[in-house]
Amino acid sequence: MWLQLSYLLCLLIVVDFIKEDIYAMAQNSAQTNISSRINPRVEDDEDFVPYQGERFTVFDWMLFRSLSKTNRGNILLSPISIKLALVLLYEGAQDQTAYELAGAMQLPVSSPAIREKFNNIVKSLQAPSSAYILNLGSRIYIDDNILTRQRYAATIKTFYNTDVINANLSDTHAIAIKVNSWVNNITNGHIEKMIDDEKGLEDSVMLIVNGLFFKGAWRRKYFAPENSRVSKFYINANESINVPYMHTVSRFYYAESSRLDAKILRIPYDGSKFAMYIILPHTLTGMDHIVNEINSFTLARDVWAMQELPLDVWIPKFKFEFTSHLENTLRELGIRDIFDDTALLTGIAKTRRVSRRLRVSDVVHKTGIDMNENGTTAYAATEIQIGNKIEEGTFHANRPFVFYIEDETTGTILYIGKIQNPLNTSGTTGKVQQEFPSRFNPDTAIVTPNSVPVILSTEDRYSFFNIDLLQRVNENVEGNLILSPASAKIALTSLVEGTGGRTRHELLAALRLPAEEYIIRRIAERSLIPLKSQQNGTEIDVATRLWINPALAASNNYMTALKTYYGTDIQQLNFGNTNNAANIINSWVRENTRNNIKTIIQPGTLSADTQMVLTSSLYFKGRWLKSFDKDVTRVRCFYVPQNGCQDILMMENSSKYRYGNIASLDADVVEIPYSNGRTSMLIFLPSHKESDPYLQILFKDLSYVPMKTLLTSLNETELILAIPKFNIESKLDLRSPLMRMGIQDIFNSAANFTGIVFNKYLQLANIIQNAKIEVDEEGTIAAAVTELAVVPLMANMVSTFIVNRPFMFAIVDLVTSETLFAGRFMGPNADNSKGTI
């Protein structure tokens, strides 16, 4: 016989949306300008900056996806409540049991890091505030026959603020009263009975209870009860129901997600800490797509793309409860051992009857939510038993949608839910006995370094363009690749002041720039400063020139702004003689790249109708701070996908480098500093050569990790570092990647360049970049030129880091987090011509 830990209760937060009458929908009235309908009295100066630490929400969305696939109706769960309960199990788990819990929840690599992570979350959630109500608490009830390990009790009290209470669990009636009373108290009376079946406690030896309750009012009093109205909610293409809607016309942070094919709306609560996000599919059949595609990385990117816009918003009031048995869901996610006789939870307790051991018999999760005009109330409890697109400018949530409530100061998700039918008030999943194969493999366990929450400024958001562009270019390019995001960004930013309307909006959105001209100029000036320096053997030089047809009456204001804020000099050039014009531009390119790039304009490619050409060059020559000994360089094996081992010269050095394993990238990262003290090369190496041989997953995931956050995750480590000598040259047409990033108007007849020239219609023919890099024992030489043509419309004691398989690299300014150059090396015989698109 085994002792059963019969109930591990994780009480989830109740978010209580304060009830008010529903907002009246004026659907029969004519469409008026949304901005003019906004009440200026409810405006404030909120400057929303998304959370920038490494997100701890991968498990949250995996859990939501798994539940959604087996529940077609409304869903609500509290990921943080479940994780707080499970981590208390993890603290007492050993061997395979611990591996599975750590792997599924993607816990940090070490116990101190895990405890620090959860301790910060608990402290943040338990911090008192007059703006909202949030109750969080955990308790462990242990039977008198169990001898609790003192170390375990001290650990969970110190780091998780959880008390261990000894009680006679054989007296099931008394213990049920105690647990239900505690749960009822912490959820402000919303869960009266967590334990309905007292008989289920008969074999229990331990109960872990976590309770969370949240009640928040909307930051702005968006929804007036007198404006509420009943209207149709489309459950599917063939079925609709009448539901009460709240309505407002106001300013909200909003984004369109191409990956999710959905709209995302943010509604903040009082206190500037919590917000609800609503994810509305564009079509009635889009819910399954969202469920399959949503993850923390996609959301991080979409949230960073949010812009504050005037919106006409309609949201249904809803109130429902949801109960789920999570054993099968957790088994599917790889947490199996805690439910089996092999469970090893010896770190929690010693039993007096040593022939019997602890195991979890079920995980029950109770939640509820009430959302109305005033705000939200949500509650939850988890009991782990051991033993058609709508009009522009509107957000009409009249079909199934996903929502979540986030602590924006820590990136912690309190609740995730799905509304399939606002009128349904309850839902449940049954406990079905089913075997799920373990997906956990200790060899591929994800490791997370200590993460430091980083608040990014507007300048930091500007740097998101760098990896975004790299990812888009990577989608079309095979073989080795070198790109300079900084050079491309300088060229595009200098165009902004010459554009208007939608053309300008597209550029600002892709570059993550605000609308204010003075802020754009300030960012541009600050970005250029570190790109002109020569210090301790490392040289960086940027140059930008606008070549303009003398017959083009360009705006003097635009010309002045280019010189003053973007460091651009202006040169008149007769494009009628195309060969001469190409030679002059190519001569400038050779001069500014120290002859590393010979041409940017190939013979016969420059049109005689060209009106302007904007060229931006970036030259980098960096000497390693810690040089590699040439005598140690030798031929080694480099593993090329499908081709196996190929010989290549590898450099080696043994020294201290900043290094880390980044769980969200499933990659090892090392920083190799240059002699000027502010620039470094970062090498990204997938943790397992079989898992991502072509670096496609790495490139995708990297776009969701802020460079500043990544840099803070690296720690100084004694390393034997071995990297190949390599050189790459790429010629890239950036038109297609930029169009996929949302910059489209500048390339077609809709282009608006009225800030450059009046009464003449212009468009960009293409954006070409030539880039080159050489890496050897002494350091790095890299150069890039971007051209925009405007035409008329038409295993040791010391850790080793051996880069012997395809890797990604980036040259980064450590002060600004700016990516000067980035690329990938696929192998010595990956023809550089394949880097041309």
Automatic annotation (TrEMBL):
CC annotations in GO: extracellular space
Main location: secreted
Highest taxon in the source lineage: Eukaryota
Record-linked Pfam families: Serpin
Domain Serpin: 61-422, 467-828
Signal peptide: 1-17
Keywords of the record: Glycoprotein, Protease inhibitor, Secreted, Serine protease inhibitor, Signal
Cell location: Secreted
SUPFAM superfamilies, sorted: Serpins
Key word GTP-binding present: no
Single GO MF annotation: serine-type endopeptidase inhibitor activity
Keyword RNA-binding included in the entry's annotation: no
Family statement: Belongs to the serpin family.
Name assigned to this protein: Serpin domain-containing protein
Organism: Atta cephalotes
Origin organism lineage: Eukaryota, Metazoa, Ecdysozoa, Arthropoda, Hexapoda
